[in-house]
Amino acid sequence: MKSAGQPMAHESAGGHVTGSALYTDDLLSRFPGVLHAWPVMSPFAYAAVLTIDTAPALAVAGVVATLTSSDVPGEGDTGPNRHDEPLFPTEVLFHSQPVMWVLGESLEAARLGTAAVLVRYEERTPLVSIESAIQADSFHSPPLRLSRGDRASALAQSAHRLKGEIHIGGQEHFYLETQAAIAWLDESGGVALHSSTQHPSETQEIVARVLGVAKHQVTVECLRMGGAFGGKEVQANTWAAVAALGAQKTGRPVSVRLPRRLDMMLTGKRHPFLTKFEVGFAADGKLEALHLALYADAGWSLDLSEPIVWRAMFHADNCYFLPAVDITGYVVKTHKTSQTAFRGFGGPQGMLVIEDILDRIARTLQLPPELVRQRNFYVEGQTTHYGQTVKDASRIERIWNELKSTSNFVARQQQVAEFNEQNEHHKRGIAITPVKFGISFTATLFNQAGATILIYRDGSVQVNHGGTEMGQGLQTKILQIAADGLGVELGAIRIMPTSTGKVPNTSATAASSGTDLNGAAVLDACAKLRAVLAPVAASMLNCLPDEVHFEQGIVLAAQQKATFAEVVEAAYRQRLPLFASGFYKTPEIHYDPKTGQGHPFYYYAYGAAVAEVEVDGFTGDMRTLRVDILEDAGNSISPIVDRGQIEGGFIQGAGWLTLEELVWDAKGRLATNGASTYKLPSWMELPEVFNVGILERAAEPGVVLGSKAVGEPPLMLALSVREAIRGAIAAFGDGGIVELDSPATPERIYFACSKARGQAEDA
Amino acid sequence: MGSNIAGLMDFVLNNRRIQLPQCRPQTTLLEWLRSNGLTGSKEGCAEGECGACTVLLVRPHGTGSKYVPVNSCLLFLPTLAGQEVLTIEALNENKQLAEAQFAMAEAGGSQCGYCTPGFVMSLFAEQYRPGRAGPCDPHSMGGNLCRCTGYRPIRDAALSLGPAPDDSFRGRLSSPAPSMIPVSYTSIEGRLERPGDLAQCTTFLKKYPDAKILAGATDLAVESNLAYKRWPVLMSIDAVAELQVFQDAADHVEIGAGLPLSEIEFLWEHAPLVAREWLPLFASILIRNRATLGGNLGTASPIGDAAPMLLALDAELKLGGANGIRRVKLQDFFLGYRKTQLEPGELIVSIIIPKPFPNQARFYKVAKRRMDDISTVAACFAVNFDADGRIAQARLAYGGVAAVPIRVTEAEQSLLGKRWDELAVKQAQAIIASELKPLSDHRGSSAYRLAMAQTLLKKFWCER
After folding, report:
1. Is A470 on the interface with B (CB under 8 A)?
2. pLDDT under 50 in chain B at which residues?
3. What is the CATH architecture of A13-125+173-266?
4. What is the pLDDT of residues A290-325, one digit of tens each?
5. Are A260 and B45 inside 8 Å of each other by CB?
6. Which residues form the domain of B345?
7. Chain B: nearest CA to A670, how far in angstroms?
């Protein structure tokens, strides 16, 4: 029996439920004498740092050292690409930006130390809103452009045209485990770290850069993360660098852990967007021309904002053919946290816009929104606006029809209409939306992975690879893949903590690609080891090597068998290598950012969702009554894990679109900086009926075990909730266009309902 | 160095006696657990919102005990003196998973795993809740946040659990829980006093007029954890019997100011609809297990959820001080932003709600999230009718629309003697608009708050 494809609980579930699974900060008691770090934070969002007097801090009991620019042996900058993130800035660019750090015997001592530090600032006027930054011509990069056809003349010739503007809010990751790193000087003269990072190799690179040492001096290990969602793809680096710098200066272990409030005030979020569109369409609802401007609020530094805006531009088509299109992406520089990767990576914002537009078109033409959506689906052979053929385009319609049928969409639409007829103050909405999400890092070079597998003489196995575990179930899938790859039982394999000392130059575990890349590398290493073991087994079992079959720890040939451990021992005695490295690079992909054309994605993950909601017209309060999902996950390697990703991604997306609201005040201070002011989905947001299906007969050739990536795509299925809300709002009026910024908080819904009622009265 | 007086300076943790250490009295149980190797309890927010730090207190239930899940980030260590605590590490001490643990693992209820121990503790307490029948109630985990799963598998785990197994954890519940003993804790970094009765409280407050009064600490510990507020002297009211009363009499209900909300919920069998809909909206169960009415009113927050309901029910407060007890109407209690009638050394003893309850009364809360959020606007309306069906009394109370929780008296006046119809609602709404000038903040705009103050009255009328 194969392990892959079996529903199994998370490989660490036993540790999770007993509290014995360890995270970075749980390791503190293993480091006697560990020092705690606390930053001196700017009270302004934009200011020059004139002078810093650290002496008073050193007089505070328990303070051991301060860290300032003079302590940096290497380069005091943690910006991953552009080197635009000074660790000890002379100019503050966002509110609460650390300007230096204090190390203490306790967190309390370090914090009291920072309170004693005297900093003189010269306050400047910050750019807080996207609009004010655009006005001030404040951008990180020149505009990014993507176009096809003659948009201007297509627009001019369209029978119908609409213009609009949508504000899209950002999203706090709110991984339950906040940013954390512990650094110490190891016993052989290097620097070692435990870091809660999605990208140990980059954390290693940044630490080496700051310390001014070669990378081989730095080892970064990540046991597991208590959630990440993109928030630890690059933003784990700074805290690791501070810890390493502190360890190097004091010779003692140093812990940097951001409590929730600091984590929210200092780290980046999903990008808020301002979007402006003009669309031309035919009387049947078919899109003819789209002119789109996407302004992403990138915050103070570049981070990953360019590829994020690119992905928003790529995904502005979602599942729809855009004949003539012209999209400009702007990376706007504001005095806020540096917005960063977050599950979907720009895709959600791009898709939100086109879904919003299609609903407006439908309401303008008085057509059902789902019909207008369907009429615009890609068909086989069509290419995207960036020149890639839409592989398996017919799958969109297949999923659509299957889901409409299993969710009983048409009958329920009728029931919703009846409910709305009978209720004046409460209205329901039901909507179906599709998702097409491109899988691969758009930067081609990141699409590579390595693995190292070690087999010991007793037949037990250690698997090392470059991916990190953040709860997404990567290690569970790797375990299943490796067990089948070697033909051993799950219990024979130990997945090792991710370490830069085991596999070098890894890519971030991101872009939903963790299993695709690392799983394939592990499989490659398994194949190499099987190639070593098969002839050994063949001579033991008197058969040909290709007649040998490895399964669940037994090696079989015809009527004979041996145990895996016996074959391994025999191989050892024959002096054969029992370790191997595996490697994988995604084939076929290429992309030219200058022309905006190419084949950036290896394949697309598809899905669709039906959501039904009820809106309270008195307050704007909203409830999701039922959700039905059909997701294309290829041949699922781990069905419980995949269902978990689908459900969790959906609820997280619904949170982004409804209740999670980031508010910055005029001074650039984040007003929603804690769990009491920033609201994640809770129990009550779980729909009473939540049906999730995984598409059958959907093996993806060329991907590990025929599976498909499932980390990010389901998040965008939550756009069905937003569209259902807009439908319910429309029902308060005469069914006309609903303008609704995101997130759809009760306040926004309430005022949109009032407007809809008003339009109906005016009409 | 100070010393621990009374020899009562220890607590039972996972069946082992632990001596209270010398520490800052505001050290939380969570901080102490984690720095002593018990890292299963996690810090997710340090303000009682996420539940990742959930532990169980063994508290009295009839002649036996019950497990009460609470946020360990909001428990100051010295308040545990004489108490009994279970953490996640206790649940599988004999290496066998508790049913709640097994169900969570099996259902796929953990992804990153960071919130999981907290969920398990809440679910465990629910499974062992005395008198519970049928599957476990998923809402017992309403104080726990998960960012990964979307909750469906966790709901399935809860629904899969039946009665608690006959084990030592269940056996523990048939013997009494520790009582709340007086405490006098002094360390080099401060002092925490827990007097045994009201007289000792007022005496202590006379001696230390600046002592900070500590009830459920669901607000105070947040100030301590997030704003780093430090108080040299703290006084806990947890052991004061006079503050723990509950009496449902013929003409009134008296609720002790120190009674946790979940106890009120349990004791108030014949609570009117308005109170039954108010309690779950007030806060999550983990907070309700600690938060008190005295604390909610005493902080005089303009967005506290107790005041609007108690104003609409025309409640009175008993205030106790060195000069004895006095009674004040709640509507006269709030003097200004976070200012009350409490004199130095005085504290709220109990809340008295007159009977009969109003003919019609409802509580509404508008917030970004439907449960466990802070009110953008809270409203409670109560009306009484005369024999003729006309409005004889009306009390329209709000939180979140002014510097203090208030009643809109002019709008109330406008309703008197009228039929309870749409016209009367419209006229009252117009007056409300002139009476209120709410602020804009991250929870909502002034316009929205004002609209809610008006529209909720209409909702109240529609739902009559």
Report:
1. yes
2. 1-7
3. Alpha-Beta Complex (3.90)
4. 999 999 999 999 999 999 999 999 999 999 999 999
5. yes
6. 241-354
7. 10
The count of CB pairs under 8 A between chains A and B is 240
Nearest to A19 among B88, B150, B152 (CB): B88
Token readout for A220 is: 């970064």
Per DSSP, the residues of B423-460 read HHHHHHHHHHHHH--PPPBTTB-HHHHHHHHHHHHHHH
Residue B367 tokens, joined: 């917030």
Q: What is the pLDDT of residues A673-716, one digit of tens each?
A: 999 999 999 988 999 999 999 999 999 999 999 999 999 999 99
Residues B349 and B381 in one domain: no
Name which of A678, A747, A657, A736 is nearest A167 in CA terms: A657
Q: Would you call A509 an interface residue with chain B, using a CB distance cutoff of 8 Å?
A: no
Chain B residues inside the 8 Å CB shell of A649? 150
With a cut of 80, say whether residue A577 has pLDDT above it: yes
CA-nearest residue to A471 within chain B is B112
Give the domain ranges of chain A: 13-125+173-266, 273-442+593-762, 448-585
Same domain (yes/no): B49, B136:
yes
- B226 close contact with A: CB closer than 8 A: yes
Inform me whether the C-beta atom of residue A170 falls under 8 Å from chain B C-beta atoms. no
Catalytically annotated residue among A712, A739, A747, A761: A712
Residues B366, A26: C-beta atoms closer than 8 Å: no
**Distance (Å) from the C-alpha of residue A265 to the closest C-alpha of chain B?**
13
In single-letter form, the type of residue at position A282 comes to A
Q: Which residue has the tokens 């992905």?
A: A311
User: Measured in whole angstroms, how far is the alpha carbon of residue A583 from the centre of its chain?
Assistant: 24
Res. A128: pLDDT tops 50: yes
Helical segments of A423-548, H only: 474-486, 514, 520-541
- Residues of chain A with pLDDT > 70: what percent? 100
What is the model's pTM?
Answer: 0.97
Indicate whether B332 and B407 sit together in one domain: no
User: Residue A402 has what pLDDT?
Assistant: 98
Put simply, the chain B residues between 286 and 325 with a CB less than 8 A from any chain A CB are none
My answer on whether B333 and B262 are in the same domain is yes
Polymer length of chain B = 464
CATH topology of domain A273-442+593-762: Aldehyde Oxidoreductase; domain 4 (3.30.365)
Residue B18 located in a structural domain: no
Residue in A644, A680, A684 closest to B153 by CB: A644
Any residues with CB less than 8 A from the CB of B454 and at least 6 apart, and which?
Answer: B429, B432, B433
Q: Annotated catalytic, A288?
A: no
A26 interface with B at CB cutoff 8 Å: yes
pLDDT for position B143: 97
Q: pLDDT confidence of A762, banded at 50, 70, 90?
A: low
Q: Do B442 and A111 touch (CB under 8 A)?
A: no
- B178 within 8 A of B83, measured Cβ to Cβ: yes
Right CATH for A448-585 from 3.40.190.290, 3.30.365.10, 3.30.1340.30, 3.40.50.1360: 3.30.365.10
Which ipTM was obtained for this model?
Answer: 0.97
Are B386 and B308 part of one and the same domain?
A: no
CB–CB contact A679 B373 (8 Å)? yes
Query: Quick one: DSSP state of residue A518?
Result: I
| Chain A residues inside the 8 Å CB shell of B444 | 747
In chain A, which residues have their Cβ closer than 8 Å to the Cβ of B229?
A: none
Domains of chain B: total: 3
A727, B274, B363, B383, B415 from B391: Cα distances, Å:
39, 19, 19, 7, 6
Tokens of residue A617, six digits:
């017209």
pLDDT tens for A597-641 read: 999 999 999 999 999 999 999 999 999 999 999 999 999 999 999
For residue A174, what is the nearest residue in chain B, using CA coordinates?
A: B147
Task: State the pLDDT at residue A219.
Answer: 98
- For the stretch A400-416, pLDDT in tens is 999 999 999 999 999 99
Residues B389 and B457 in one domain: yes
The closest alpha carbon to B110, from A715, A174, A12, A468, belongs to A12
